[in-house]
Specification:
The complex is a heterodimer of chains A (about 130) and B (about 290).
Chain A: H1 15-20, E1 22-25, E2 30-33, E3 39-46, H2 49-59, E4 65-71, H3 74-82, H4 89-100, H5 104-120, E5 124-127
Antiparallel strand pairs in A: 1-5, 2-3, 3-4
Chain B: E1 5-10, E2 13-18, E3 21-27, E4 30-35, E5 38-47, H1 54-63, E6 73-76, H2 80-85, E7 90-97, E8 102-110, E9 115-122, H3 131-139, E10 148-153, E11 156-161, E12 165-172, E13 175-181, E14 185-192, H4 195-198, H5 204-211, E15 220-224, E16 227-232, H6 239-245, E17 253-261, E18 266-274, H7 282-288, E19 290-292
Antiparallel strand pairs in B: 1-2, 3-4, 4-5, 5-9, 6-7, 7-8, 8-9, 10-11, 11-19, 12-13, 13-14, 14-18, 15-16, 16-17, 17-18
C-alpha cells in the first residue's frame, strides 16, 4: 500500500494578510448577462471518478469536465466586476461599503463570505 | 484630541466604548469586543436570585471557563478612578496572568436592581486609567428608571417596554432581525440593506410580501415620517371574538409596517402579533422608538 503523500501545511495567514490578497478570476470561465441584467458565470467542474466510470458504463462516453452555471444577483454582479486582478480584498470591501452606504464591518462580512463561496467553487484564486 | 465613543445597549445593560472597538460576539447576556483583532473587553451580566457574593460569582465563572489551563484569578485592589466611577455598585476587582495575556476586571452588584455584572479588559496593565476604559466605567448602567429596555447594536437602536423579552436575534450581512416576546405581544424588528439593491427589481410591497411571507393584497401603501411605507393593518375585533383571542396559544392579530429610508439606503420594518386588540397608537409608538443610529 502506498503511503498517503504528506501534504504541505497551509501557510499561516492572519486577517491583514488575507485582506491584502488580490482575488483573480479563473481564466477558464465564461460570463454572459441575463435578461434581468444579472451576470451568469459558466464554470468547469471536474467529474468525480465514480461518476465518470458510471457514465462510461451506461452512456459509453466519459467527459472529464462538465460545465455549471451560476447566476449572481445585483450585489454579487457588482462584486464580481470589482475582481479585476488589481484590487485587493480590502479595496473591494471599501468600494462595496461606499457604493451601498454600508458600515465597514457589514461590508467586510458580506464581501468575504461571497469571495469564500466563489473560491470554494473554483471561480477565483487569491494572489498574495 | 477628543475621545470618540460609541454607545452600546443590549438586554438591560448600556455603556459607551471607544469607537475603534468592534463587537465580535453576542449572546443574550454576554458581549465581547476586539480592538485591531485582539481581545479588548468582555462583559457578562444577569439577575441574582438570593444572596450575592463576589467570590461566588468569580468561582462560577471559572467553573464555566472552557479553555485550559485556567489562569489563577486573584483579588485586585481597584484603582481610585475605577472605584469613583463604579460608586453606584458594590464592586470588587480581580486580575489574572497567563503566559500570553493578562486581564483586569471587576464583579459588580447593583443593590437597586439586583443584577450582577462582570467585566474584564485584556492586556491593560500599563493603561489602567486610559480615558476609553474610564468612559466605559462611568457610562456603565445595568438598569433604567423608565421601565424600558434600550437596544443599540450595529446600526439599529430601539427603546421597548421592559415586559418584552429578547427571544432571538441575528445580525447577518444585509439583514438584521430582533424578536421579542411578552405574555401578550410578540414584536419583531427588521433592518435590511442596501435598499437600492434589494428594491432594484422589485418594489417595497413585493419585497415586504416576500420577506414576511404575506400576500401583496394584504399590504397598503402609506407614509411614515415622510418615508414611503407599506402596512398590513390588523382586522377589527368585536364581541365574543375579542374574548376568544386571549385563549389562543399563539397571538392571532398581526400588524406590520415596513418603511424605506431612501437617504440612508435602508429598509426598516416592525411586525407585532398580539392576543389582545391593539391600541390605536401602539405601532406608531414602536415606530418612533425604532431608528437607525
Amino acid at each position: 500500500m502506498n503511503p498517503k503523500p504528506k501534504q504541505n501545511p497551509l501557510p499561516h495567514m492572519n486577517k491583514q494578510h488575507a485582506l491584502a490578497a488580490i482575488p483573480v478570476q479563473n481564466s477558464e470561465i465564461t460570463t454572459e448577462v441575463s435578461t434581468s441584467g444579472h451576470l451568469i458565470i459558466r464554470y468547469p467542474v471536474a467529474l468525480r471518478p465514480w461518476i465518470a466510470k458510471w457514465l462510461r458504463r451506461f452512456k459509453g462516453t466519459s467527459p472529464q469536465i462538465r460545465y455549471r452555471k451560476l447566476q449572481l444577483d445585483n450585489l454579487g454582479t457588482g462584486v464580481w466586476q470589482m475582481i479585476d486582478g488589481k484590487r485587493t480584498v480590502q479595496d473591494i470591501i471599501d468600494d462595496f461599503a461606499q457604493i451601498h452606504q454600508l458600515p465597514a464591518a457589514e461590508s467586510e462580512s458580506a464581501v468575504t463570505q461571497f469571495l469564500r463561496d466563489l473560491g470554494k467553487r473554483g471561480l477565483i484564486g487569491m494572489r498574495t | 484630541m477628543a475621545l470618540t465613543l460609541k454607545k452600546i445597549a443590549w438586554n438591560g445593560i448600556q455603556f459607551s466604548i471607544p469607537f475603534d472597538w468592534e463587537l465580535v460576539s453576542i449572546d443574550s447576556r454576554h458581549l465581547t469586543f476586539h480592538k485591531s483583532d485582539t481581545p479588548a473587553m468582555e462583559i457578562k451580566w444577569g439577575p441574582i436570585k438570593g444572596r450575592f457574593s463576589h467570590q461566588g460569582l468569580l468561582k462560577k465563572l471559572v467553573q464555566g471557563h472552557k479553555a485550559r489551563p485556567i489562569p489563577k484569578i486573584t483579588k485586585w485592589q481597584l484603582p481610585p478612578a475605577w472605584t469613583q466611577a463604579l460608586a453606584a455598585y458594590s464592586a470588587q476587582g480581580f486580575c489574572w496572568q497567563s503566559d500570553a495575556s493578562n486581564g483586569h476586571g471587576a464583579t459588580l452588584y447593583c443593590p437597586q436592581c439586583k443584577n450582577a455584572v462582570i467585566f474584564q479588559f485584556f492586556d491593560i496593565r500599563n493603561r489602567l486609567t486610559n480615558p476609553g476604559l474610564l468612559q466605559f466605567l462611568k457610562t456603565l448602567a445595568d438598569h433604567r428608571d423608565d421601565d424600558c429596555t434600550a437596544w443599540r447594536l450595529f446600526e439599529v437602536q430601539a427603546l421597548l417596554p421592559k415586559s418584552l423579552q429578547l427571544k432571538h436575534y441575528h445580525f447577518k450581512p444585509g439583514n438584521h432581525e430582533l424578536a421579542f416576546k411578552s405574555s401578550i405581544l410578540a414584536v419583531k424588528l427588521y433592518r435590511w440593506a442596501p435598499a437600492s439593491a434589494l428594491l432594484a427589481l422589485s418594489n417595497l410591497t413585493a419585497f415586504t410580501a416576500d420577506m414576511l411571507q404575506l400576500s401583496e393584497a394584504q399590504l397598503s401603501f402609506t407614509s411614515i415620517q415622510g418615508n414611503p411605507a407599506v402596512e398590513m393593518q390588523p382586522p377589527g375585533v368585536t364581541g365574543w371574538h375579542r374574548h376568544l383571542l386571549r385563549w389562543g396559544i399563539k397571538p392571532a392579530l398581526k400588524w406590520v409596517r415596513v418603511w424605506h429610508l431612501e437617504r440612508n439606503n435602508r429598509i426598516l420594518g416592525i411586525s407585532i402579533e398580539s392576543k389582545k386588540p391593539f391600541k390605536p397608537n401602539q405601532m406608531a409608538q414602536l415606530c418612533a422608538n425604532f431608528q437607525l443610529k
